[in-house]
Amino acid sequence: MDPKRRLAAIAAAALVAACADDRPLDDRCVGCGTLVIAATGEPAALLPPLVYETVARDIGDRVYERLAVLAPGAAPIDDAAYRPALASRWERVDSLAWRFHLRPGARWHDGRPVTADDVVFSFQAYADSALDAPARASVAGIRAEAVDPATVLLRFDAASPEQLFDATWHVRVIPKHVWEPIPREAWPADTATGRLVGSGPYRVQQWNRGATLTLTSDTARPATERAGIGRLVWRFTADPDAALNLLLSGEAHAIENLGAPDRVARAAADSALALYRYPAAVYGFLGFRLADRSGRAHPVLGDRAVRRALAAAVDRNAMARALYGPDAHAPAGPMSGLLWIGEAGIDTIAHDTAAAARMLDAAGWRRAAGGMRRRGAVPLRLDVLVPTTSPARRQLAVMLQEAWRRVGVEATVTAVDFPVFQERLAQGRFDGYVGAYLDEPTPRGLGEQWGRAGWEALNHGHYFNPRFDSLLAAAGAMTDTAAARAAYHAALDTLAADAPAIFLYTPVQVAAVRRQVRNVTIDPYSWLSTIDTWTMPGEPGDAPTAAAARADP
């Protein structure tokens, strides 16, 4: 998985007015069906192959469509769990091909019909090295062919139980007639809003860069397919506090994640807001460097016993809750709380400082004068690398530093700018680092994060255990969800025993939405994916739902 998929620092933006007039939000928007969203940072692009920030995905997924969508929480290997989107139906042709039939009457926002040629063009664009789309590696083994104007055939290089996932999750279809005349290497620099033409429920109306972006419902769609809110406005802010202030002042209706517990408390105190808690698709960890690129072991962390001792010295759940609130927890492995295989039953190293001390003693690291450990003349000393862009990661590193000090391990913390952080990870210039990865619905990404195949990608610590790789590959080939879950758990048991990392947290996010917005539900993988069914006062079907009734007071 390309690192551009992962959490990234996004550009700060100036705080300016959301709409063209100065009237209060309630006077301006109630009855006119406008929802204002406060966002931290502004996307660099909205064209799907160029998107890597979550806010860009949230906006773009209202404009562009996948062929089909996976039901929230479903296993990607369950072919019955996919729902129609741009394709109205599909069928397997053989072990290496699927046939998709486009939705009758599907049209681009400029009125042109959506055709199979657009789908073929889109898959080719995502696979093009000139664009280097975040999903490029995931679609490299798929070839799209137009059977007729409304039918497309997708052929795969190899049989896999997740072919339908690969065919539908990564690629949003873009219009060939708009983008084919422009050289692909010029796409990233193209800022023409008029070319942001999609087939989704909303169309781009205006983008005031550095300020706001407005989408309007595509009224050319049949009435039964139109979104429940007529206009969406994103207000881009410089930081989370500025975004929250917009919400509390009544200048915005919704925010994706309140973040720190103090911001959650401020929102909870406002009776006009409903809070929606949902598990985040992210996990954080302390990754160890086990070896360099040649496979030569790290002089300290190459020892499995030392890594296990360092893991046992850390109260992971206490750290997660202290930093991310009472609903956060330390995952059993490299996963958020969303991954369909679940955590229950996966082996973990328990917090036990006495056991940690015994393991370090047995490995030859004995306490010396001052209480710090040495082996002969060599001190047990480590450095933890963190990016300056993440205060939370630095705080985690300081917590680790203190936990290890208690068992006689000296640790320092080095904070560097994010580009330098990435460069040092790629070069292997670290002992440990605090990282964070985003989950997708499939566990297959674990191979690129922790397997031998990921040494040149995301497995910066160069962990390698053939048994882990073998179990992971076997799990990925299974079509039965129960058998696959058991196989994935066996692989993660192997990983946990080797302790190439300490898995520190997976948070619960808290979205805040003004109570005048009804029918609110949250898909944890993409919080706005259900917004087409949200409603505002004065709109049809605005009765409160069970989800709204269950929202926090």
Give an overview in words.
With 553 residues, the protein is an alpha+beta fold. The protein folds into 3 domains: 181 residues, Periplasmic binding protein-like II (D-Maltodextrin-Binding Protein, domain 2, 3-Layer(aba) Sandwich), CATH 3.40.190.10; 111 residues, Alpha-Beta Complex (Dipeptide-binding Protein, domain 1); 224 residues, Dipeptide-binding Protein, domain 3. Helices cover 27% and strands 21% of the residues. A 7-stranded mixed sheet has the order 8-9-10-1-11-21-12, with helices on both faces. β15 and β16 form a beta hairpin. The N terminus and C terminus are likely disordered.
Please provide a brief summary of the model.
With about 550 residues, the protein is of the alpha+beta class. It is about 25% helix and about 20% strand. It has 3 domains: about 5-65 and about 200-280 and about 510-550, 3-Layer(aba) Sandwich (D-Maltodextrin-Binding Protein, domain 2); about 70-180, Dipeptide-binding Protein, Domain 1 (Dipeptide-binding Protein, domain 1); about 280-505, Roll (Dipeptide-binding Protein, domain 3).
